[in-house]
Specification:
The protein is an alpha+beta fold. Among the domains are: 97 residues, HSP40/DNAj peptide-binding domain, CATH 2.60.260; 75 residues, Urease metallochaperone UreE, N-terminal domain (HSP40/DNAj peptide-binding domain, Sandwich), CATH 2.60.260. Helices cover 30% and strands 25% of the residues. It contains 9 helices and 14 strands. The strands form 5 sheets. A 4-stranded mixed sheet has the order 1-7-8-4. It has a 4-stranded mixed sheet with strand order 9-10-14-13. Strands 2-3 form a two-stranded antiparallel sheet. Helix 2 runs antiparallel to helix 3.
Amino acid sequence: MAGTPRDYYDILGIGRTAKPEDIKSAYRKLARKFHPDVNRNDKAAESRFKEVQEAYDILSDTKKRQAYDQFGHAGVSSAAASEAAAAAAGGGGGFRYQRPTGGGGATMDFGEIDLDDIFASFARGAGRGRGRGRTQTSTVPDQPPAADIIHHVTLTFEQAAHGTRLDLRLDTMGRAGSETLSIKIPPGVEENSKIRVRGKGQPAAAGTRGDLIIITHITPHDYFTRQGKDIILDLPVSLTEAASGGTVRVPTLGDPLDVRIPPGISSGKKLRIKGRGIALPDGAKGDQLCRVLIQLPPDLTEAQRQSLAAVDAAHPHNPRENTGWRI
């Protein structure tokens, strides 16, 4: 029937005999998948996240789960109404905070983040504390904890290699307006590197804030590839250049340079240019490796092919002799 609430066990994808640890594991998996910080401006994901948290709130509480198992959603509603009435009378009711969104940034260092800790905090209701007097008891909610915020940025290959500075305009959590931050990206970051910006995450009511976590993504380069701190460039050369040697001009991450090709070089050999690789935060630099690719003219005549065959006949050798192949 339309409008009928979904079964909480179905929402979490678990059986009705699931153990508490199974419920928690299913919740964490789904919370990571549908959390608003991971699905920006996705209303469907936001709705799904709220649905998952509601299911976890019920099934992780022993009394609420028993009421749900016996009476379904009606039993949960009745239990909630009783709890609200008890709270109004000074009983042990509690409050639950919704996690705000947004971010910010300043001082940074490399670091990892444990998402389990963040998402586990969403599952915990505000703790209950009692102010005791001779004739009354009141319920006071805990302050919501500060949490880290994740923000993804896309860099060019050159920005990742040399480092850069980015201006990020982020919503300021818990306030009106937004916050513009100048973020320094250190040299040498890779795909999925994490940069921690201290004190610019989600604020807590007590005045503390979590951290902003910048996750980097690198756009592929048209002709450079990265191998650790070195960069690789495929260098096509002609048959004559390979046989007789010569000098060719090649691009680098800085200015172009002339590279000398030794006579008799073979395809696959690498010519090293010192210090023209990836810069690292400690000041060290990798190298640029130019990988030689010998290219024959595409339109050789039969006579020219016979001339090459004569060269091979005069200098017999097996080019696959040192490959180590087992065939």
